[in-house]
Design goal:
With about 550 residues, the protein is α+β, with helices and mostly antiparallel strands. It contains 14 helices and 15 strands. The protein has one domain. It is globular, with a radius of gyration of 23 Å. The protein is about 25% helix and about 15% strand. The strands form four sheets. Strands 4, 5, 6, 9, 10, 11, 12, 13 and 14 form a nine-stranded antiparallel beta sheet that branches. Strands 1-15 form a two-stranded antiparallel sheet.
């Protein structure tokens, strides 16, 4: 580990010197360089938030990430709510875009122009994925991270055409294996009112899509996805009625093979209670090639996550735009046991104690992605200065390793499946894309203590985002004394769009603000859509500086 860190550190120094005086756009021409101009690129900008206002009122957005973890995540980091416990290089906030005034840039763009821009699909045209054609054709030299002349990473293959079960279909109407899931947005930055719409698709490896004869079988695939959902949520999941004898698996865990209408969560191997996949995955599981445990996805699981601009529908509703800001991809490439996860968390804790000024190295490249030491690799694509998708650079990918690394709120390095809509109620059992049904009408999610999750967030933070910069939500949900409006909380209980969806005016301005970052290609200085320079963010902190938070709270 020390040798790797030394090599990366020297690379960073060399490349920083060679890049002096270059603009962000010209640096983007060398995407594969293994260097970090920001040595703390794995620390997201939200971590520099001031936790009290000018009047001394406490604000705690930290709890949604840094919280009591659930096994096999042993990173119990509640204590990070209480201090800016950064390594030395991270004490300076290098996310300079947070403090840029983009009002003139926004004023220079008309509403008509920004709507035309976000309504232009930069992912596919005429059914063809332009990015995939470029990656598999003559690869641009500055995209070739390892210099071997071809792309060795993920080639986008989602068609964004969905059936009544949320499965993605290619141009011939055949399943691609991808399935869209609907979820409640993670509190804070991922609320559309704070800048972007997004979607998430999952794909399991081929054995989980096939019956025991090795034939593609969508019924088997749907059942295995329900089993995965049960394992991640650690709860029973409703399914369409199936004859268990057909699969040889007691899905409802009642001791007999009968007719099941749910996958019952019942996993306690030390007590002799196991769960099984169905189809070819069951055969692989029996052979030891498809391990299963609570809180873990199967080997080979993939996710695609698109981050998009905001559009305005004919009826005035703010919805997801066709244009992508980013297309993010992840794949589980290595299985870790509970013991290995605990050992990793212990090692990280010891390293932080023994080497308090050493940042965790970012291992990987732009093609195969960067790793998080937990069996996952992350890669992605982002707009170039012409609005076309290009591979993200090594430094741009570093934030993935941070947010999906040692964070207490994660479930097997992810955030979304745990937040998937309940299969027992709602549209398509929670398996659908936002272009099939919008966020409108989704009830507020509940915490484990029974409280409304979003109302709790508003109460803890004093706003709808980590920076407390969203004035629209502030005016909508808070009175002049800073108290929450009961009528709005009641509305929120039945429809989260009251909080998470912005007005049309705000959506347009957020789009314009972000577009100026695209034109600059200044993502390594921050990619938030900032309407005004942030005031509730530190530009620098002292190592170990205490936050204003006096009592940590939990995310769940």
């Amino acid at each position: 580990m020390k040798k790797i860190f030394f090599i990366l550190g020297m690379s960073a120094l060399v490349w920083q010197l060679s890049g002096c005086g270059q603009s962000d756009a010209s640096q983007a021409e060398n995407l594969g360089r293994l260097y970090l101009s920001n040595p703390a690129a794995t620390i997201p900008p939200q971590c520099y938030t001031k936790t009290e206002d000018a009047k001394g009122v406490e604000s705690n957005p930290c709890y949604v990430c840094h919280t009591a973890s659930k096994e096999p995540n042993f990173t119990n980091d509640l204590d990070l709510q209480l201090a800016y416990d950064f390594a030395g290089p991270a004490t300076v906030n290098r996310w300079e875009n947070l403090f840029v005034d983009r009002s003139e840039a926004r004023e220079a763009i008309s509403d008509e122009a920004i709507l035309a821009y976000v309504r232009t699909d930069n992912y596919q045209s005429g059914g063809a994925v332009q990015l995939a054609e470029t990656l598999t054709g003559k690869l641009p030299a500055h995209w070739d991270g390892d210099g071997n002349g071809h792309w060795d990473g993920y080639v986008p293959d989602v068609s964004y055409r969905f059936d009544e079960h949320g499965f993605d279909l290619d141009a011939e109407g055949e399943p691609t294996g991808w399935r869209a899931l609907a979820y409640t947005p993670f509190p804070g930055a991922f609320f559309p009112t704070n800048g972007s719409a997004d979607d998430v698709l999952i794909r399991l490896d081929s054995p989980y899509q096939q019956n025991e004869k090795g034939e593609p079988d969508m019924r088997v695939y749907r059942l295995n996805l329900a089993i995965v959902e049960s394992l991640i949520k650690r709860e029973s999941v409703a399914i369409e009625a199936v004859a268990e004898a057909e699969y040889g698996v007691d899905l409802n865990r009642n001791g007999v093979l009968d007719r099941a209408t749910e996958v019952v969560f019942d996993w306690a191997p030390l007590e002799g209670r196991e769960m099984e996949y169905v189809g070819l995955a069951r055969v692989a599981q029996q052979q030891g090639a498809a391990p299963l445990s609570a809180g873990a996805y199967p080997l080979g699981t993939e996710f695609v996550h698109s981050v998009r601009y905001l559009d305005i529908a004919d009826d005035g509703e703010v919805v997801m735009a066709p244009r992508m800001k980013e297309l993010r991809y992840s794949r589980k490439t290595r299985w870790l046991t509970y013991f290995q996860h605990r050992e990793l968390a212990d090692d990280e804790l010891k390293d932080a104690h023994d080497f308090p000024d050493r940042m965790e190295p970012v291992i990987g490249d732009i093609e195969r992605g960067v790793g998080n030491r937990r069996g996952w690799r992350f890669s992605g694509f982002i707009e170039d200065d012409q609005g076309e998708l290009r591979p993200q650079s090594y430094e741009e990918l570093a934030t993935c390793a941070g947010c999906h690394g040692a964070v207490g709120a994660l479930t097997d390095s992810t955030y979304t499946m745990e937040r998937k809509l309940d299969a027992s109620q709602g549209f398509q059992r929670g398996w659908y894309h936002w272009n099939q049904k919008s966020l409108g009408g989704i009830p507020e999610p509940q915490r484990e203590d029974g409280r409304g999750e979003y109302a709790f967030y508003l109460e803890q933070v004093g706003g709808a985002d980590e920076y407390r910069s969203n004035q629209e939500v502030r005016e909508r949900f808070f009175d002049e004394e800073g108290g929450l409006r009961p009528a709005m909380l009641t509305q929120l209980e039945g429809d989260i769009s009251a909080l998470v969806v912005p007005s049309a005016r705000r959506a347009l301005e957020l789009n314009k603000a972000y577009l100026s970052v695209v034109e600059e290609q200044s993502y390594i200085r921050g990619r938030d859509a900032v309407l005004a320079p942030m005031v509730n963010v530190h530009k620098e902190v002292e190592a170990g500086q205490r936050t204003a938070i006096t009592e940590p709270v939990t995310y769940r």
